[in-house]
Amino acid sequence: MTQPILTGKNLVKRYGKVTALDHCDFELYPGEILAVIGDNGAGKSSLIKALSGAVVPDAGEVFLEGEQVKFHSPIDARAAGIETVYQTLAMSPALSIADNMFMGREIRKEGFMGKYLKQLDKKKMEDFARQKLSDLGLMTIQNINQAVETLSGGQRQGVAVARAAAFGSKVIILDEPTAALGVKESRRVLELILDVRSRGIPIILISHNMPHVFEVADRIHVHRLGKRLCVIDPKDYTMSDAVAFMTGAKEAPVQ
Amino acid sequence: MTDSQSYEDVVKDKGETQFAQFEDERKGFLGTVQHTLHVNPALVPLIILVTAIALFGMLLGQRFFSAGTLTLILQQVQIVGVLAAAQTLVILTAGIDLSVGALAVLCTVIMGQFTFRYGLPAELSLLIGLCFGALVGAMNGFLVSRVKIPPFITTLGMWQIVLASTYLFSRNETLRSSQLREEAPSLLFLGNKVSIGGANFTFGVILMILIVVALAYALRSTAWGRHVYAVGDDPEAAQLAGVNVHKTLMSVYILTGLICAVAGWVMIGRFSSVSPSASTGVIGNIQSITAVVIGGISLFGGRGSIYGAFFGAMIVGVFEMGLRMAGADPQWTFMLIGMLIIGAVGLDQWIRKVSA
């Protein structure tokens, strides 16, 4: 089998007396969409945060392309090529689409103005942002300088996914990307996800929505009581099987 | 696929393409006005400022509407203007700094006493004063960002500490104009002026305008400026999006402290003396917050333009000067400013409703 692109080994994370991650393993292979499902409180978010640098695990190791990495903040993970779309989207409502896409990685002008006066190259950033949104089919943008707060929920989600897709060179993590969206908007985001995979970037998808998970995922990581219960192929099991594994109603298949 | 998801098929088959359109919906004249104000938050105070100058000009004629009077207003607002520039930075990060005025006064005392009590060259004392301002700013920043004390509480405490230090350190001693002129002219440097026609620009006024222009550039056109807005807007989102929130807050408070120290230098030039009991120590914070709020900068952070704060300071100056010349009771000034504050925040709330 090919080498996993992102691996977690024996990850442990405790919050006081609560053990959120209990010696959890995790693997993501190149070019796949891996769904992570689990009951509320199973530790999905802790797992994702440990992989994306938002929390530092108490024990265990994370490997990116076979090399051990230690992330102390989301900025570290981002620098390594792991982009995360958080459930809260992590956008500044009063700033423009372009500003938000380039938050923390702004492009400066070349020459004197950029080097000594640190002037931003707004045109370059706007063109890039417009290009990326068009690539993902978020066309008909008239004003890339529109404040994010003037967009609808679906549009904001689209911009957040576009931001991750534009900069995520190795892994993209999506935390409940369709939770707050209507049927139509969810559809669009699922198309975006498939589109990103077709460009060869593996995706970790955390979702409660079984139809969505079964539609796009290549493999499903079932999380239960702080660890990986099993990994199933959505073609071999039904949605009710998956829910049964996740809640403990059914014995997990032997790998 | 099971039947349970067939409800989605309609959307799937139709292949909806009308999803993320960023169409520009016009909502009539009011919507356009709201959008314009949303994009240019400094426009309202500018309109009020121009209207106020025009009104007083018509009312009082040449006496008010002359280069001499108008530049005199600039001289009268120079201290508040510089403090308002500092206050703007903190308020943009959704904070507030109550220690600005007191810090400016303490810096004047340090600049003065280091020269006269310890016999240091005035230029060196000046530098020490500026560094001290930045140091107090750094302390505020550390308490807000690392110890997580709310900015209001941090700077409320710092205000009292700084105010008390001013009296203790100065031994309540005032340095007079004649002393300063003979032994430390560089402390009075910003009191010098250039006259063009009837207009008098002190170096302090010019410095105030330079500070505002430089900060406006930094806030609008550098990554740092974008980070300041993002941190004020939603610090958690900014952190997750890759902004170093702690570093941004520290830089803002340090810069604010430094600008307060500059305001101190401007004060020495303006009053030609160093007095620990200067009123700026007690009301400088409220004056600067007033200018910032009238300038349309949101106290909730992340919104507004530093030019607004400058216009806000000018509006207060114009009202004071105009009403005094018209012979009105000075209380009218305060009443008008009070109404302006409430009006400005009401307007801010309306602008923030951006369903348009």
Automatic annotation (TrEMBL), chain A:
PROSITE patterns: ABC_TRANSPORTER_2. The keyword Transmembrane does not apply. GO terms for molecular function: ATP binding; ATP hydrolysis activity. Keywords: ATP-binding, Nucleotide-binding. Residues 6-250 form the ABC transporter domain. Coiled coil: none annotated. SMART domains: AAA. It comes from the Bacteria. This is Mannose ABC transporter ATP-binding protein /fructose ABC transporter ATP-binding protein /ribose ABC transporter ATP-binding protein. It comes from Yoonia sediminilitoris.
Automatic annotation (TrEMBL), chain B:
CDD domains: TM_PBP1_transp_AraH_like (cd06579). This is Mannose ABC transporter membrane protein /fructose ABC transporter membrane protein /ribose ABC transporter membrane protein. The chain crosses the membrane at residues 42-60, 72-92, 98-117, 124-143, 149-169, 190-219, 250-268, 280-300, 306-323, 332-351. It is a multi-pass membrane protein. GO terms for molecular function: transmembrane transporter activity. The lineage of its organism: Bacteria, Pseudomonadati, Pseudomonadota, Alphaproteobacteria, Rhodobacterales. InterPro entries: ABC_transp_permease (IPR001851). GO terms for cellular component: plasma membrane. It comes from the Bacteria. Coiled coil: none annotated. It is found in: Cell membrane. Keywords: Cell membrane, Membrane, Transmembrane, Transmembrane helix.
